[in-house]
Amino acid sequence: MNDLLLSLVVDYGGALLFAVTFLSCLAFPVPSSLLMLAGGGFIASGDLTSFDAAGAAYLGAVLGDQTGFQIGRRASPVIDAKLANAPKRAVLHKKATDLTNRHGGAGVFLSRWLFSPLGPYVNFAGGAAGLNWLRFTVWAAMGEAVWVMLYVGLGYAFADRITDLADILGNASGFLAAGVVTIGLGNWLRIAAKQAKSEKPD
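-> structure tokens emitted (202 positions)
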């Protein structure tokens, strides 16, 4: 399967990378990160140019974000109806909504690369919540730049170990996200305990 995907990157280059990053930002289950790693590897081998790989992937991601934001703004009841029949996606959407409501633009930025499974749902949630379009666009574009540079850059640096690297990054991002959530929860509990102690009558 991975060999087939890698050969598709060589055959279709930027068009494929544009398509997969665009679709991934709309919650389609496509292997965008793996293909960007492959794109970086093929830059190293001279089979693709930087624009073919990084430029096309970035453009697809930015346009995908914009499309998802507008869908959220104009068709949030349709999204809610679709999610009613998809419990796992509904959980992601709720987490994305919480992230957007709590952290605004910073939440959008982090959802592009650190909490990437939430990214498409943050697009929908941001549009539905009426998040300022310019603010969303700036934070999303910066986050997508990190995402694309991270994966294409690592693919370039480790061109001969693309599939191994993809497995490591998949596990690492999960552990990193869990660590961030754990730290955040610990801080929240510490603050809540202090407040409860200060409000306790002597």
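Residues 2-199 form one domain.
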